[in-house]
Design a protein that fits this description.
This protein has one domain: Vaccinia Virus protein VP39 (Rossmann fold), CATH 3.40.50.150. The chain is 42% helix and 18% strand. The chain contains 13 helices and twelve strands. The strands form two sheets. It has an eight-stranded mixed β-sheet with strand order 1-11-12-9-8-5-6-7, sandwiched between helices. Strands 2-3-4-10 form a four-stranded antiparallel β-sheet, with no helix packed on it. The protein starts with a strand and ends with a strand.
Length: 347
């Protein structure tokens, strides 16, 4: 039986959401430039996930055409991003923009707010299927796309000794090494994620919001068939949910989910199941929560600031903020949130 959990408090991302609101115009400008850049390139021929010729229904999302693959249900841009995107200079984007410079306390605070809850949830789920804490601490953990190393820091605090993080961005690797040590974080120059799995064997792999960046998902999930039985993967991906609709209605606002800069694809229930079957894994647990209500309230707050008299702005904004968690809880229960966390196990 698959364990399913729903929702979480929005307070843990209050700081990040405030920064989005403050930088809204700059973020929108960057996305518009990314769309213009991508439009100059050729169309995809193959589906990222199933590898077949890309055929399916199409829709326009903020100036880019997306295709819903008729075979596997995966959503992806009709345009094929150039090699190295979005790291190439013309795209004007680096992942380090997600992680501002932080002192030790700020770094630890972000880890405790956002990444420790992921680990706590995973530990709880794995405890239920026979992995006690001592066993989890003794296992080899490998994080694919470790970013600034926040989840690795949570593992270290928990007591895991054997762990390593891999990322392609040199700035992020340096950032994480400063916090965790050079032996715990390494850079990978391979654009084939299946090679990373082969080079860094583990009992448990983690990958938080990473798979949606792969341009060769078919070869990656196919390669997972070769992993030993019992191998665990803990991961999260964006889904086509309410936020995707909001982004396409309110085009003047920042698009956080299906945004064209780093997210040129999105999973669906059908494409997740396809990927698991392709890899030979079974689902153990899922945690369904999103930031759709945050996006909705951000749009409303921007409207309030632009349209309403200052005398009632603060009171109105405070009332809007109290709606976030109740609204999101209903979105999550309807399985319409913009992201999901999974624990899967090799059959």
């Amino acid at each position: 039986m698959i364990r399913t959990d729903y929702s979480k408090p929005s307070l843990d991302i209050k700081k990040e959401e405030s920064e989005r609101i403050a930088n809204e115009s700059e973020l929108v400008d960057g996305q518009n430039k990314a769309v213009d850049f991508l439009k100059k390139h050729q169309d995809r021929k193959k589906c990222l996930l199933c590898g077949d010729n890309l055929k399916g229904e199409k829709f326009d999302h903020r100036g880019l055409i997306f295709v819903l693959c008729g075979k596997c249900g995966h959503i992806q841009t009709k345009i094929n991003p150039p090699a190295g995107y979005p790291f190439i200079p013309e795209a004007g984007y680096k992942y380090k923009h997600i992680y501002p410079q932080q002192n030790f306390e700020e770094y630890k605070g972000r880890m405790l707010r956002i990444y420790k809850p992921k680990l706590d949830w995973a530990i709880s789920c794995l405890n239920e299927i026979g992995y006690n804490n001592d066993k989890l601490k003794s296992m080899q953990w490998t994080e694919i796309g470790c970013g600034g190393g926040y989840f690795l820091a949570a593992l270290k605090d928990f007591g895991v000794k054997k762990f390593i993080g891999i990322d392609m961005d040199a700035d992020l690797v340096k950032f994480a090494q400063e916090k965790l040590g050079d032996d715990k974080v390494t850079i990978s120059n391979s654009n084939k994620p299946e090679e990373i799995v082969a080079k860094y064997p583990a009992d448990i792999y983690t990958a938080f919001f990473v798979f949606e960046h792969f341009e060769n998902s078919y070869s990656f999930f196919s390669a997972l068939k070769n992993l030993p039985a019992g191998t665990i993967i803990i991961f999260s991906v964006p889904l086509f949910g309410l936020t995707s609709l909001l982004e396409n209605i309110f085009v003047a606002n920042y698009a956080r989910s299906l945004n064209g800069i780093v997210h040129t694809q999105a999973f669906t229930d059908k494409s997740i199941n396809y990927a698991l079957n392709l890899a030979g894994f079974e689902m153990i647990a899922q945690w369904i929560f999103g930031q759709d209500a945050n996006d909705l309230t951000r749009i409303m707050i921007n409207h309030v600031k632009n349209k309403l008299p200052k005398s009632i702005q603060r009171e109105t904004i405070n009332k809007i903020i109290t709606l976030i968690d109740p609204i999101q809880a209903n979105i999550d229960r309807a399985n319409f949130s913009d992201q999901r966390h999974f624990i899967i196990k090799k059959i």
